[in-house]
Amino acid sequence: xxxxxxxxxxxxxxQDNRYxxxxxxxxxMDRIAQVSGWFEGKQKFDFHEGEKRSKTFIQNExxxxxxxxxxxxxxxxxxxxEAEARQWEEELAAHGLAVQRQHY
Length: 104
Hints:
104 residues; mainly alpha; 1 helix; 0% strand
């Protein structure tokens, strides 16, 4: 058998080169996985941040609407009471009676 004298050395060098290439590839894939994980996390965080702002905005709007509704209801109730008081005074006036506003 005629084999080259450095056959085993060349075989080991080729195997080492394949190991180095595989290690480089693994390192490259690890970097890609880290970047992808960071990007996905950022997207997820940005979505939740926007969602939080949106919920806060909606909650603030609902509180303002509730306050405005209370003001409108109080105003309408006051107007109703004043209209009923005028109507009652008119009915009393029709019978010759009046409401005494100031008590001395």
